[in-house]
Queue: 2 jobs
Job 1
Amino acid sequence: METLIIIIKIILIGVGTGFFSIAMEADKEDLPINALLASICYGAYVYILSLSDNMVIATLIATLLVSFLAIYLTRKRQKPLQIYLVAGIIPLLPGFNIFKMVLGFVNQDFTEILVNANLTIQILFAIVMSIIIASSITTMLKKIKIKV
């Protein structure tokens, strides 16, 4: 039953991201690709989270995977990177942690504020570092390919 719930979540995240891509003014042919990227990203996140039980590591690896896919699609389809990358990482953004942090402000629970602020910063840092790593690796591989 738990596996079925995870599969339904992955499908719904893909559909939701597909609709979000409309707001990003993506072309019609890019909507299913964006939905698939978001589903792959969240699926990888859930799988790695089940293995490591660490949200930051799971976010880092899932974002790294989606960053490589987005860079590949950008070069293959000759479209801006933002169309694929932003749609792919939307499921990993720490909105719930930010909500819990604000709730801590309302309840004046400073421990809750610090814990969730720390986790939010770590997750955002992992996302940024994954994008930088993927971009750097693909740039180095492109330069090596040109020299050979």
Job 2
Amino acid sequence: MDGFLDELRLLYGRSDSTVDSYFQDLNSVSRVVADAKAVIDLDEGDLREVISLYSIDHAPSSVARMQVTLRAFFQFLIHEGYRTSSPMEKIENVRTPATLPEVLSIQDVVRLLEACDLGTSVGVRDRLILEFMYGSGLRVSEVIASRVDDIDFEQRVIRVIGKGGRTRVVPLASSTHSLLGRYLLEGVRSSFLIGKIRREEVFLSTRGRVVSRQYVWQLVVKYGKIAGIESSLHPHTLRHSCATHMLNAGADIRTIQVLLGHVSISTTQIYTHVTPEHLLEVYRTSHPRALVCSERHL
């Protein structure tokens, strides 16, 4: 199991959170089979029973993720010579309902950003974190891993290392670029540095450490409450809102794919959607029958 996790991290460049998810999945399987068998020795019948038992207390999405983990693990065992075939070959994937994450209105995004107190160093930093996620569509992991040297102020872009260690260059919004200058050049970030410790990352905590994923999650929820936004918020809401607002404004899906760092455009097609309001607006201004009806009313 350790070799498998090391391969995910070192060879395939999986993030720590992804590797931890695989570890937790394999541990869950170990707990289900208890002392009956080692995971490495499970056959198809064993795995069907494990998946069935696991499905009782877990959502389909969790079961599907565990199946992905098992498929990858048994392929690793084959490559390493521990097994000759995978017991997962004939087991069908659990179907998960297609769901779209919530998207904020442009007005709600403005209220969220303006909830940060720019009169304090923490408020400036937090506003900039939100700007990175909405203005450039960055993932949480990409935000906290952002380094000062990756920023090109002249070109107004930042180099981002995304999933699988893939690098892309992402433009910075004008509001992000302006606030970034204040954060880096006017002593805001340096106020978080402690002693002689130096950090490469852009976003630091008040203790001089790199901000955590948990902190970013908490600040999104915190400022959402201050802004009076009733819908449940999480960091991915801002990334999805960025993509949706660009799509509604006329950006092509290929551009959005590159911006978000999706390997497959099918991921972007699922990830972005047209809001009902935008659909009605486009329909009423472009469909021949809608135009005829409008002229008759005039």
